[in-house]
Design brief:
Blueprint lengths: L2 E5 L2 E3 L5 E8 L8 E6 L6 E6 L6 E3 L7 E6 L4 E6 L8 E11 L2 E6 L3 E5 L2
Parallel strand pairs: 2-11
Antiparallel strand pairs: 1-3, 3-8, 4-5, 4-9, 5-6, 7-8, 9-10, 9-11
Length: about 120
């Protein structure tokens, strides 16, 4: 069964840090790039950070550049999002995503999401 499971969200004060994890199963993790998205209430889902299949290349939304770091451990089928210097505007549900190849064509796989709340 193809699955992504996120964890690590929670309530944190402004300026604090969190590390999100996303464990993949059911597909060949090391063949696919991975993306972290987030969706705040009343807003569209947006891409936050992307990593290539081997993790050698990454890119970030301007709003998180310099504060967030995406990384992956292909031996553990896990992608991480280290979030530092958190701001109230980072409050959102965070999702990991993989676009995998299937016999029917590309398929987007999503996790269930993990809530991040930044508040004093």
């Amino acid at each position: 069964q193809v699955q992504l499971v996120e964890s690590g969200g929670g309530l944190v004060q402004p300026g604090g840090s969190l590390r999100l994890s996303c464990v993949a199963s059911g597909f060949t993790f090391n063949q696919y790039g991975m993306t972290w998205y987030r969706q705040a209430p009343g807003k569209e889902r947006e891409s936050v950070a992307v990593t290539t299949s081997a993790g050698y290349s990454t890119s970030y939304a301007d709003s998180v550049k310099g504060r967030f770091t995406i990384s992956r451990d292909n031996a553990k089928n896990t992608v991480y999002l280290q979030m530092n210097s958190l701001k109230p505007e980072d409050t959102a549900v965070y999702y990991c995503n993989a676009r995998i190849a299937t016999m029917q064509g590309p398929r987007d796989v999503w996790g269930q999401g993990t809530q991040v709340t930044v508040s004093s």
